[in-house]
Hints:
Layout lengths: L1 H20 L17 E4 L13 H16 L3 E2 L6 E17 L5 E16 L7 E12 L4 H24 L4
Protein name: Lipopolysaccharide-assembly
Amino acid sequence: MLKRFLILTGIILLAGGIMHSCKVSYSFTGANISPDVKTFSVYYFPNRSRLVNPNLSQNFTEALREKLQRQTSLNELEENGDLIFEGQITGYEVRPMAIQKEDQAALNRLTITVSLKYTNNKDPEQNLEQTFSAYEDFDSNSSLSAVEDGLVPEIIKKLNEDIFNATIANW
């Protein structure tokens, strides 16, 4: 009986030691960041598209900064952070969608494209250069200027979610 007790106690202690040495990291934001990473920098994303929205660069850059501040515990540096986000807006265009009778579009699509260079100074294998696009459709009876203020923030939100997932969340 004592022998069984000692064996069972040994197994429990061994399992406890193994479990204690394993580190499982959970995050409710989806962030998967190495403990070595403490800071990030987001450089201004200039608008290099043919059609220019004068506020797009500023709004996109600020939204990306805010997302990183809200969903990570990293500190922001103006430059040379452990993680660096830089790039440019390469596309801002409207195209007709859902063509109806008499070759008239029922919907138009506003698409924004961003070219991103992501640098992880703590783990260069995580570095990424990728293009991201997102869009919103709107009724063809509405002009772009009438719907732009409502569509652009939604598209920026989608782009930032995709960028966050591809870089910080490692999806």
